[in-house]
């Protein structure tokens, strides 16, 4: 794929047709010329971005809708939402989270590579940091001086790794096969980071849902199920090199405010994961263990989403 800077526009539209969102293969690029993002109802904008490794990323921007002054008189805060594995920006639970956060800030949602109308194939949390970086850069183009990221499950691990790379990224190098090493600085420092239902370490298989997920990702028939049954295109290559884990990333995030949220009934990752993440912060992170909550966006009720939005607005100083 062609190379281009994060935030480069490849296509604009208000809303894709359902068959386009569900049937996209390797690339979401189209014959339509690149143009400025079109404005929809109430200032909503939709645009395809391009990650630094050339993948088209479907993204949407919506202005703040709330009247609370929690995000400051200038309204300069934007929350970028990173969804979980097999999600995309059109999924109802992602839209519900965006609506809740819009009470406190403008919101950018996007679909990770291999999901929805975005191009490429999912690397299940590795190169997805580049997709988030493109969305964050686009959010800043609207004039927002403060950017907070909120990630769920896979997206929760991505926001941690992305935040750690804001200033403490590794110097670029070469991967096996000549691919450019992508673990490097991802832009200006964030104002706040929220990770919901994230794993602490890679290759965890301690629960039945995670064993099923590993089958989905590592087996050809599993990837076929992901592609046609879950609308998620998964890359067949294993990680090389293995990216920094969430627990390795957390110590590098300070002084950026960090909130870790996890349900005590999470069927994917038990509570030792959030506790490990919080411990790795050395007391910097705030930990919310939510009673009765399951996993990620689907399990986050409106009250919790409102608390997360309020926390982000209050801590993104």
Question: Please, could you describe this protein's structure?
Answer:
- By secondary structure, the chain is of the alpha/beta class.
- It contains ten helices and ten strands.
- It has helices spanning about 20-25, 90-100, 130-140, 155-170, 210-220, 220-230, 245-250, 270-280, 295-300, 300-315, and strands at about 10, 40, 45-50, 55-60, 75-80, 105-110, 145-150, 190-195, 260-265, 285-290.
- Strands 1, 2, 3, 4, 5, 6, 7, 8, 9 and 10 form a ten-stranded mixed sheet that branches.
- Helix 2 (about 90-100) packs across helix 10 (about 300-315) and helix 3 (about 130-140) crosses helix 4 (about 155-170).
- It starts with 10 loop residues before the first strand and ends with a helix.
Show unreliable segments.
Answer: 1-36, 168-181
Quote the beta fraction: 15-25%
Q: Count up the helices.
A: 10
What share of residues is helical? Answer: 25-40%
The rounded Rg comes to 18 Å
Note the main sheet: 10 strands, mixed
Beta-strand segment tally:
10
The sequence of SSEs as H and E is EHEEEEHEHEHEHHHEHEHH
Q: What structural class results from the helix and strand content?
A: alpha/beta
Distance between the termini: 38 Å
Would you tell me the overall average pLDDT?
83
- Overall morphology: globular
């Amino acid at each position: 794929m062609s190379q281009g800077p994060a935030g480069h526009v490849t296509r604009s539209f208000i809303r894709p047709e359902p068959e386009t969102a569900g049937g996209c293969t390797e690339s979401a690029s189209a014959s339509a010329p690149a143009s400025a993002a079109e404005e929809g109802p109430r200032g909503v904008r939709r645009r395809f971005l391009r990650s630094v490794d050339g993948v088209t990323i479907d993204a949407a921007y919506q202005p703040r809708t709330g009247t609370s002054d929690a995000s400051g008189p200038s309204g300069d805060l934007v929350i970028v939402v990173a969804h979980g594995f097999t999600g995309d920006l059109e999924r109802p639970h992602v839209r519900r989270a965006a609506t809740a956060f819009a009470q406190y800030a403008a919101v950018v949602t996007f679909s990770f590579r291999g999901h929805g109308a975005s191009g490429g194939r999912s690397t299940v949390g590795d190169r997805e940091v580049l997709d988030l970086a493109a969305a964050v850069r686009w959010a800043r183009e609207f004039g927002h001086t403060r950017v907070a990221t909120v990630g769920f499950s896979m997206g929760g691990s991505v926001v941690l790794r992305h935040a750690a790379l804001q200033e403490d990224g590794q110097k670029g190098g070469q991967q096996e096969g000549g691919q450019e090493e992508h673990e490097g600085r991802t832009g200006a420092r964030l104002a706040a980071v929220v990770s919901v239902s994230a794993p602490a370490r890679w290759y965890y298989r301690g629960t039945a849902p995670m064993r099923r997920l590993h089958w989905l990702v590592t087996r050809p028939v599993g990837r076929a199920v992901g592609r046609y049954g879950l609308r998620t295109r998964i890359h067949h290559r294993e990680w090389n090199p293995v990216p920094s884990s969430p627990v390795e990333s957390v110590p590098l995030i300070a002084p950026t405010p960090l909130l870790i949220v996890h349900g005590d009934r999470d069927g994917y990752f038990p509570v030792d994961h959030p506790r490990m993440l919080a411990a790795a912060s050395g007391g910097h992170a705030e930990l919310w263990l939510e009673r009765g909550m399951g996993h990620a966006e689907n399990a986050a009720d409106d009250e919790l989403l409102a608390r997360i939005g309020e926390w982000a607005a209050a801590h993104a100083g």
